[in-house]
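Ops channel
N.P.: pipeline sanity check, posting one input/output pair.
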């Protein structure tokens, strides 16, 4: 009986970790009058732990000038049906990486013009 309990716990742990994931976009370029926005949506029915990060062309994290609503608005726990993200105003070549506690998220990196209109959007794919 003990072996069955251990097997069940191991299966549950493997299933939970298999559902978690890291998602990444390709790099995109914004001009001085534009901005980048990495949006993450929880399409599931339960909260999801998320982190969002922008990385420059050399793979270094971009933190200066980045507004992160996933941390500021939700402390990294995104409720079901809600979208958060990280945004940067100005010229930058970057990619977006999202780490989530389950696979019920969708993410994309978009270029926004000076009026906030989306001119390009690149979906994130699971690594």
């Amino acid at each position: 009986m003990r072996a069955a309990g251990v097997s069940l716990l191991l299966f549950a742990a493997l299933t939970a970790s298999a559902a978690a994931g890291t998602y990444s976009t390709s790099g995109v370029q914004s001009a001085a009058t534009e901005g980048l926005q990495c949006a993450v949506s929880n399409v599931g029915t339960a909260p999801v732990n998320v982190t969002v990060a922008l990385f420059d062309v050399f793979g270094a994290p971009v933190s200066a000038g980045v507004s992160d609503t996933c941390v500021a608005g939700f402390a990294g726990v995104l409720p079901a049906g809600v979208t958060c993200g990280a945004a940067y105003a100005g010229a930058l070549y970057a990619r977006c990486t999202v780490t989530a506690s389950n696979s019920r998220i969708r993410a994309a990196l978009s270029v926004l013009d000076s009026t906030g209109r989306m001119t390009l959007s690149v979906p994130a794919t699971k690594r």
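N.P.: looks fine end to end. The longest helix spans residues 2-19.
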